[in-house]
Amino acid sequence: MEEKLYFNYTNDLHSNFEQWPRVSSYLKESKALRKQKGESSWIIDIGDHVDRSHPITEASMGKSNIKLLNDAGYDFVTIGNNEGITLSHQDLYHLYDEANFQVVCANLNSTDQEEPPWLNKTIKIETVNGVKIGFIGLTAPFNAFYELLGWHISPEFDALDNHIVELEQSVDIIILMSHLGISVDQEIARRYEEIDVIIGGHTHHLLRKAESINNTIITAAGKHCSFIGEVILTWDHHQKKLVKKEAYTTDITNKAKDLQTEQMIQEMQVEADKLLGKTVVHLEQPIEVSWFTNSPIMQELTNTLRNWTKADAAMLNAGLLLDRLPAGAVTYKDIHRICPHPINPVVVDLKGDELIEVIRASLTKDFMELRLKGFGFRGELLGRMMFSGLKVETAFHRDGGEYVKRVLLENGKQVNPDHTYYIATADTFTFGRLLPEIAKSNTKQYFVPEFLRDLLAQTLRSNFS
Fold first, then answer.
1. Helix 63-72 crosses helix 259-275 at what angle (to 10 degrees)?
2. Distance (Å, whole) CA 42 – CA 197
3. CA 398, CA 420: separation in Å to the nearest integer?
4. Using omega within 30 degrees of 0 as the cis cutoff, is the peptide bond preceding 286 cis?
5. How far apart are CA 34 and CA 223, in angstroms?
6. Which of 19, 190, 311, 346 has the fewest CB atoms in 10 Å of its CB?
7. Are residues 265 and 282 in the same domain?
8. How confident is the model at residue 432 (pLDDT cuts 50, 70, 90)?
9. Are residues 50 and 94 in the same domain?
10. Domain that holds residue 354
11. CB-CB contact of 325 with 338 (8 Å)
């Protein structure tokens, strides 16, 4: 006898609640159909469901996301970095208190030795016909943030070594729920033939059909749940082994929305508006923002960043502020609307020559007009870099291109190429290769759980009330 096992999954929703009623509709219909046919099916999420760029998530600190997962009938979830490092220790500790599903993450540990009751290293289940399935979850090791928040992420291969042998001995099928990214998933498949399926996320890769490496199939469904993934495993009870492994992703962007879910989200939005409706400051005049020229609000925010971090100087890109603030009462909702990014302050050390190179790169047309997606940035484009504690003198070539003539310190002295300066900026620039000198800095002091919008609120109270 052959038995088919069905697993629907999502990854990297990032609180894209406009799409969620379609997700819920698809999953509820699929689960009902499987139940009607007497087939075994489960629903899985691979993390980054939470994203504090959305006011519903911001107001509830992710609890609303859990309600939506409950409503859609999820069975198993692992955490992504947006659950892990954008919430305070206590908010993550209690995030899944009301979950009707199981959470699995083998490489997450609390540094105070008190593990949350929802945390499972592995999960084992058995189908009605006796097939034993083991799940193990892993998340990306952003320990520079996690350890400041009271957590530690152990290396993914150490976690696998600690659990894979026991799983292999006790279950028939092993499924890895991986918020590690495609390249790590591929390396795991090369090293661990015991793993049958890797359901992935984090790097937002879309695999329309499964990728096979050795004995393992790898699958992932992109980002924002435009696609939903499905894994189909065929178990032969006579041979006592898997005889077929399949995985596909389905475009659901034209799927009809579940009206109950849509109503639920509307009610959540009303509640979020209430929670974020407290007045922060009252403005006599509107505050304008500009992505390519100096604006008082952006300059004062950069000054606040420098003073708050006690850095030698600070630099922030003007694209962080998405919109103007009208005269009148400014609420937390307004501040979140114009600065939705889950971006933390950071201080890095740079030699003077590295600092000058960073400034030069940040004032190029290509940098200012870059339409960045990711690294915490939720805006349209980066915009012009603003500075505090530095005087940057520029001029223009005949072709109109701007260039840096010289960089002076606050006291009027030129930057010393060999001196080390402590520069405050957005943690966005410590990732990737946007500004390589910052990304490669040996010293990075992150400030958590504060976001830049917390400093924006402070700036408005201090300078614009």
1. 170
2. 14
3. 34
4. no
5. 25
6. 190
7. no
8. confident
9. yes
10. 278-463
11. yes
